Amino acid sequence: MITPIRMCINCRNRFEQNKLIRLQCIENKLYNYSYTGRSFYICKECSIVPITLKKIDKLCGKNKNNNTTRDVFLKIIEEINS
Ligand SMILES: [Zn+2]
Fold first, then answer.
1. CA distances in angstroms from 17 to 5, 7, 38, 58, listed in the order given
2. Rounded distance from Cα 66 to ligand 1 centre (Å)
3. In order along the chain (82 residues), what is the average pLDDT of each group of 10 residues?
4. Which residue, 10, 17, 21, 53, is the most exposed by fewest CB within 10 angstroms?
């Protein structure tokens, strides 16, 4: 089986899908990918770079609570690294 190649939204490098972190935005809120809907990928290196969060913010659009995206993002990263 061939592993699909996907692009990181931050560095735009291509990686095997299973090496990337898959996220999605639903109604301007960030979530861990839930197997439906549109999604995007970030690589492990970019997950620790602050600018990635800005890109995600832009992708998700305006959020009433500015801290939400950051909190969700950090939680997802924490779970992946634990
Ligand atoms: Zn990247």
1. 5, 8, 15, 22
2. 23
3. 94 96 92 92 94 90 74 89 82
4. 17
Distance (angstroms) between ligand 1 centre and the Cα of 21 equals 10
Q: Show the DSSP H helices in the chain as ranges.
A: 50-60, 67-81
9 C-alpha vs ligand 1 centroid, how far in Å?
7
Across the strands, what pairs with 23?
Answer: 32, 40
Answer whether 3's CB lies under 8 Å from 17's CB: yes
How far is CA 51 from each of CA 2, 4, 9, 15, 61, rounded to the nearest angstrom? 31, 26, 11, 19, 15
Integer-rounded Cα radius of gyration of the chain: 12
